[in-house]
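User: Round two. Same drill as before: sequence, then structure, for each protein.

Assistant: Same drill it is. First protein:
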Amino acid sequence: MALDIRLACLRDAIRKNWADLETQEVNGTLVVRLKKGVAVIEPQKEREPRKRNRQAELSAPE
């Protein structure tokens, strides 16, 4: 779950302004961070698909 949120934040940061990010290699792993002083971006919640109104489907004439 935490990894999903971090990836969502990174995706949003890349879309808004790539220059706000800095990269560094740590122990052979690429680390991407927001630069100091850059506002933290809250991840956007993905919209859930609308649930169909089952009662309306049952009462609708065919």
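Second protein:
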Amino acid sequence: MVGRATFGGVVSEYNMPYSEWTTSMFFLQGAMVTVYSIVFTLLFSIPLGFLFLGSDRRD
């Protein structure tokens, strides 16, 4: 989903098909997808960590 938004956004925004892209543009967009995926994964894992690995206190 992030990849489609990132790569597709450039294609639709600048009217630039993939055949006109340089190699560095592919690497840059791929790096952005990687960074966004890592950030979203970490943000969504925090609540699950609290839920499944929460304290074992018994009051």
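The first helix runs from residue 2 to 14.

User: Perfect.
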